[in-house]
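> call design_seq(struct)
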């Protein structure tokens, strides 16, 4: 079974400089590829879609090497460019494929200031050594923990070196040769209802109820968010004090817009750079706090070895349209919870069931099965109109999800499945 792993690196100052140069070369190769694809796509649209050219100068995207287009890499003055550019451009090719097949936006260029520094390491030359590893053109690099051992003839898959604002990491995948257990046919079914008030309310068919708190409501998370806002206001004031005057330009929509002209270049403002670094470290700590809480919740659910776990197919993009709850919903990271449950259930031998998007788990009475026509967000207690049941709405939804049966309803319309909305 393939397993992903991320290990912190302990590079020297020379190696860290090499890492930054290699990340810059990878970013340049990505942007260069995207620019060439944009030029090709523009010509394709202008010709009415009659040209079959998929890449400028008749090259195929699957065998395109960005380093051959870099003049500094050709003349050998930038040997570090080969560290990250000796691989075909699979990442931008995947972005272009998503643009054509998944209706995504056209891939944009990576910014030197905002993109995450990362680059690819040749998997064939990556070797595990005592205290670290040895890579092509980067030499021996110390790590905080040893790399997992591999069998003869195996390699670490898709290794990348990245920087998260404080530390450098090596991420890769490898085969641990562990066969996941078979899923149980009979056993406990756990329903998980995700929400904003509480991160998750869980109910098992054996009668156990578990509530996972919302980490964003804790004192530690609130203090970090308050610190982040204070630092961002300070950075805004420092940028405002550095404005000399405004220049009138034409915006993207064709309307006139104002562009600030700085007294000094922002790269030379040392106090502003220090403030931006503090902002990145605070955001990093806040993201780590949320990720750790989600990992703990998903590990708790899967390691109890239930027969199945039932979650909802949430329309997160539709929920984000509520401007009063959009920020809170974004902090909950519902898709990340589903992603972690998918691979952890597969690893632990637990069957993961995704309930139908139109299944009324909150409107259905867990006692008699009556479906209410309307249930507002303000009503936190579910009151059944037939049997008189009074129960917390999140717990009621978790009970219904635990008993969810995916019947043969795939060919029916939502109104035919669960009745018309009143």
């Amino acid at each position: 079974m393939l397993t992903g792993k991320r290990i912190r690196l302990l590079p020297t100052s020379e190696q860290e400089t090499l890492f930054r140069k290699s990340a810059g070369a990878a970013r340049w190769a990505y942007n260069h590829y995207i620019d060439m694809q944009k030029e090709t796509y523009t010509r394709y649209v202008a010709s009415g879609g009659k040209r079959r050219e998929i890449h400028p100068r008749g090259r195929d995207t699957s065998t395109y090497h960005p380093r051959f287009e870099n003049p500094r890499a050709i003349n050998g003055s930038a040997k570090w460019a080969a560290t990250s550019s000796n691989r075909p451009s699979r990442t931008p090719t995947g972005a272009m494929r998503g643009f054509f097949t998944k209706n995504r936006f056209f891939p944009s260029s990576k910014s030197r200031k905002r993109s995450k520094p990362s680059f690819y390491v040749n998997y064939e030359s990556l070797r595990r050594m005592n205290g670290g590893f040895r890579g092509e053109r980067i030499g021996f690099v110390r790590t905080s923990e040893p790399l997992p051992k591999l069998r003869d003839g195996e390699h670490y898959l898709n290794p990348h070196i990245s920087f998260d604002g404080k530390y450098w990491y090596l991420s890769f995948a490898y085969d641990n040769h562990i066969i996941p257990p078979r899923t149980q046919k009979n056993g406990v079914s756990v329903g998980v209802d995700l929400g904003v008030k509480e991160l998750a309310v869980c109910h098992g068919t054996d009668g156990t109820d578990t509530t996972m708190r919302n980490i964003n409501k804790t004192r530690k998370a609130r203090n970090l968010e308050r610190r982040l806002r204070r630092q961002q206001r300070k950075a805004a004031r420092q940028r405002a004090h550095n404005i000399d005057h405004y220049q009138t330009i034409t915006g993207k929509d064709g309307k006139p817009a104002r562009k600030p002209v700085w007294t000094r270049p922002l790269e030379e403002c040392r106090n502003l750079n220090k403030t931006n670094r503090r902002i990145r470290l605070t955001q990093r700590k806040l993201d780590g706090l949320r990720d750790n809480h989600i990992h703990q919740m998903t590990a708790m659910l899967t390691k109890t070895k239930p027969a199945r776990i039932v979650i909802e197919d949430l329309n997160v993009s539709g929920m984000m349209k509520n401007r009063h709850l959009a920020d809170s919903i974004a902090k909950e990271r519902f898709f990340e919870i589903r992603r972690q449950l998918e691979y952890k259930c597969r690893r632990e031998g637990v069957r993961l069931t995704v309930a139908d998007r139109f299944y009324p788990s909150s409107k259905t009475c867990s006692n008699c099965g009556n479906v209410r026509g309307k249930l507002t967000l303000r009503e936190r207690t579910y009151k059944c109109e037939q049997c008189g049941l009074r129960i917390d709405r999140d717990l009621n939804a978790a009970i219904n999800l635990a008993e969810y049966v995916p019947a043969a309803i795939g060919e029916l319309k939502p109104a035919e499945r669960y009745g018309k909305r009143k």
